[in-house]
Amino acid sequence: MGDAFTLFLVVLIILAALTRETFVMALLYLFVGATILGRWWSSRVVRKVTFTRVYDRKAFPGETVPVRLEIQNGSLLPAVWLRVQDFYPIEVADSNTFQEVVSLGPREKVCLNYNLKAHKRGYYTIGPLNVSSGDLLGLTGDRYSEGPSDHLTVYPRVIPLNDVKLPSRSPMGTMRHKQPIFEDPTRPMGKRDYQSGDSLRRIDWKATASAGRMQTKLFEPSIALETVIFLNLNLHDYHMRSRFDATELAIIAAASLANWVVSKRQSTGMIVHGLDPLSTGGRPLPIPARKGRAHLMRILEVLARIKAVETEPFAALLRQSRVSLPWGTTMIIISGSAGSDLFDEMIQARKAGINPVLILCGDHPTQRESARRAKMFGIPAHTLLHEKDMDVWRK
Fold this sequence. Notes:
The chain is an alpha/beta fold. The chain has helices at residues 3-19, 22-48, 205-211, 243-263, 293-305, 314-322, 340-351, 367-376; strands at residues 49-54, 58-59, 64-73, 79-86, 98-104, 109-117, 122-126, 129-133, 143-146, 150-154, 170-176, 183-193, 215-224, 227-232, 268-273, 287-290, 330-335, 355-361, 381-384.
């Protein structure tokens, strides 16, 4: 109730007490009754209003997400007017905050529509939905009802890659390989004449009988590429001037490499050194190596939520995690810089039969020295200053 209307009622009460005029008394009863009725009416209607937000809760950057609001009046009283407001962050806003005024009859339902726009990666809160109402004359203050909040997950950008050369020591896989030591007996590719030293189990007896001389089966070389991506989002390891862009580039690189490995029907896992708001204690849980698109979407969901923070040294996490990796695993390390402690861990990993690959993201004063040390130790290293630097893997 507004201050002006309150003052008006006080004046009416004083006039009614002093004059005892029938008109003034009737006017006082009319406004007091309308106030009480309007307050009761709007409160009852607002309590009975239910609303549902229907939309796709996951999107990629650049996608438009249609949202449908279903508003229903569960009361036997009509809702003279309802102001519906929905709130969302600017990072997913297609326009200003959604607001609309509707009128609902008893048990009536209405659907309202608006759009969200996925501008950048993140995990965003959509809502709360706010519904307010009042009487037709505006004699009573608005009554409010607040609905639950939902969330929208915007995945990181995924750059399609075609030619990523990652080392592997695991034979008997599904990826074609040029090293004949990794021949796969499930992938025959032809025959040749028998040579001294060929195993008798590789002799094709039917072809031998047909050709009149000993024939040996040939098999297509292949490898199994099992990878684990170690993503370092410790802000201490990124240069202060480019921290935001460099960490986002690191996340895009991790998502793109995971997508490439899965597209080759290989296993990939991920361990992230950052902050996940949905994990207990904020530390992201390790994702074990698996195959399939469903597993890739699980990785992308973590990459959508993850945040770069100042935390403990990355090398300590690497030390704890690498001991559980199977022999022959390719360990992709994505970081902003690489110090001596990180190189020590990569060297120990090589001694244990693991294949480390170093990817440095963003501009850092120590990058040139890190690339030199990686070359000296025989560790494949790549430097990414911008997204376009990944074009070397797209050819």
